[in-house]
Amino acid sequence: MIYTEKVKLACHIMFETHKDDKDKGGYPYVFHPFYLATQMDDEESTCVALLHDVIEDHRDLYSIDDLEKLGFGDKIIEAIRLLTHSKDVPYLDYIAKIKNNSIARKVKIADLKHNLDSTRLGGTLSPKSDIYSIALKLLEN
Question: Taking 90 as the threshold, does the pLDDT of residue 1 lie above it?
Fold first, then answer.
C-alpha cells in the first residue's frame, strides 16, 4: 500500500462510507477494501482499491462528481466508473469493459480473489463463486 495524502483521503472516504457495513462473513466491510489496498503498488490503484465499492454501495453518500471535486484524477475516476457495476449490465459484459483498463483490472483481480476466499465465509463458497471464477480467468488472460 502506498501512503500519500490522496490515499489518506480515499481511506477516510472509504471508512466513513462503509463504517456500519458488514461483509457476508460478518466482518466489518472496511477490511475488504483495505485488504485490497495493501496489495497495490501505486497511488492510483491504492485509491481505486479503497474506493471501488463506494459509489456502487452508497450512491446516497457519494457520486463520481463528488470524487472528481475532491481531486481524484482522471485515471482514478475512470477506473472507479468501470468498477461500479450497474444492475442492468450483465456481469460478464461489465468484466469485459474492466479488462481494458489496467488499474480497474488490477483492482478487480484482487477483489475477485478476495471474494473467492472461502475462509471469509467460514469455509463455504460464495453463491457467486462460479461467475467470479469465470471473471477472474477472463481478466487474468
Answer: no
> Check: CATH 1.10.3210.10 for 5-140?
yes
Domain parsing of the chain, residue ranges: 5-140
8 Å CB contact between 75 and 107? no
- pLDDT digit string (tens) for 55-71? 999 999 999 999 999 99
Q: What is the pLDDT of residues 89-101, one digit of tens each?
A: 999 999 999 999 9
User: Which residues make beta-bridge pairs with 22?
Assistant: 28
In angstroms, the CA 78 to CA 82 distance is 6
- Give the residue from 60, 57, 124 showing the smallest Cα distance to 87: 57
Reply yes or no on whether the pLDDT at 120 is more than 90.
no
